[in-house]
Design goal:
It is a multi-pass membrane protein. The protein is mostly helical and 413 residues long. It has 16 helices and no strands.
Length: 413
């Protein structure tokens, strides 16, 4: 990591458009995270079944996967700000539906309307990251991408810290209905902020490429790039098998014996660690030996998940999750920088959507996997096993992807 050259590049925060884009990302993720932590508490309160927490993830990930590739195509061919604002309106609609459910106006005491509302979240969430990724490259210069990715990660992880904390506090002090209402308000603010962004979006001349042919081009690009594919697969399986955080409501109540405020702390701890490492990487962007750093970071993530599963003390569990966030934060910055540097402008939406299927869906699939394994094996064995599988994934990736091991980001800039 070379600090001097990085600091010689103007800070991305000097760009007004980038600041507006960060505001959109921050508010949208705050809304989503408040809903996520509140829904987890809401469903477990009704069912007392860890498997139901996995079904929440499944209800979101299936529509997300089903629409992600088409969302990427639309982002590459339609006005990005309007698509992002429409997606934020969808997030607000989900939160308002959950507000009515929590208040007892829709099917009180039943879980199916909660799952139905979460399906809408999965549909609209597929647009959020491709919109951000495509606009990111329009408001920053190429030499600012590495620092911009680090700062973007800080904003993202800050929302992951504040969102669960706000959700847990609101549930504990004001109730689930108030938490959902706050999430709806933040989603509307995110949409308004994005519409205020002033950026000249490139116009597509001539007829649009066929939908499926265009999607196929994006898929071939990703699968033919060993470094990008290996980084995405590594993150996919690490999060899939190491998704302990989805079981936090069950750990809080059955093992650690805390209330909803404790749930907010555990959900926020990984993001707090990621924010801390993001601040460091914003000043000293990763460069040489970036591939090795990525592999070590994911291995550290697996070890932290094992520690969390074995812990019986609340603050020790929070510490392990904090350290897992440090490792995950390194992975996020490296993966985002790789994607921005190697992707042509004309297919950023499609590539971001493919990345979203690998990465975004892994959180929800990980929640379903963790809930299913907890039902079969119990809470602790399910989490510990997931951590060891993550270590195995790192070993296989290190052997099968030599270009990732030798990755030097300086060569891509």
């Amino acid at each position: 990591m070379d600090a001097a050259p990085a600091l010689a590049v103007p800070s991305p925060l000097r760009e007004p458009g980038y600041r507006v884009l960060l505001g959109y990302r921050l508010c949208a993720i705050l809304s989503y995270q408040i809903v996520a932590v509140t829904v987890g508490w809401h469903v477990y309160e009704l069912t007392r079944n860890p498997f139901s927490l996995g079904l929440v993830g499944l209800a979101e990930v299936l529509p997300f996967i089903g629409t992600a590739l088409f969302a990427g195509y639309l982002v590459d061919h339609l006005p990005k700000r309007r698509l992002g604002a429409a997606a934020c309106a969808g997030l607000a609609t989900t939160a308002l539906l959950l507000t009515l459910i929590s208040a007892g106006h829709l099917a009180p005491g039943q879980t199916w309307p909660i799952y139905a509302a979460i399906v809408l979240t999965g549909l609209v969430r597929s647009f959020l990251t491709p919109v951000y990724t495509a606009l990111f490259a329009q408001v920053l210069r190429r030499e600012q991408f590495a620092r911009g990715a680090s700062i973007g990660s800080i904003a993202f992880q800050t929302a992951l810290v504040c969102g669960p904390a706000l959700g847990g506090i609101m549930v504990g002090w004001a109730g689930k209905t108030a938490a959902y209402a706050l999430a709806a308000l933040l989603a509307l603010v995110a949409g308004g902020v994005l519409l205020a962004l002033r950026v000249a979006e490139p116009r597509t001349d001539g007829p649009r490429a066929p939908v499926f042919g265009s999607i196929a081009v994006g898929l071939r690009f990703v699968f033919n790039n060993q470094v990008m594919l290996a980084a995405q697969v590594l993150d996919l399986f690490a999060v899939l098998f190491g998704g302990a955080i989805s079981l936090a409501p069950a750990f809080i109540q059955e093992i650690l014996h805390y209330g909803p405020q404790g749930l907010g702390i555990l959900r926020a701890a990984p993001a707090l660690g990621a924010v801390a490492v993001g601040i460091v990487l914003a000043r000293r962007p990763p460069g040489r030996h970036a591939g090795r750093l990525l592999l070590w970071a994911v291995a550290g993530f697996g070890l932290c998940i094992i520690g969390f599963g074995l812990s019986r003390h609340f603050w020790l569990s929070a510490l392990f999750l904090l350290l897992s966030g440090v490792c995950d934060g390194v992975s996020v910055v490296l993966r985002t920088t790789i994607m921005q540097l190697v992707t042509p402008d004309g297919m950023r939406g499609r590539v971001a959507s493919i990345n979203g299927i690998f990465i975004g869906s892994s959180n929800e699939l990980g929640a379903f996997y963790a809930g299913s394994m907890a039902r079969l094996l119990g809470l602790v064995p399910a989490v510990v096993l997931g951590g060891f599988v993550t270590l195995g994934v790192v070993g296989v990736t290190a052997v099968k992807a030599p270009r990732l091991r030798r990755l030097d980001l300086k060569e891509l800039q």
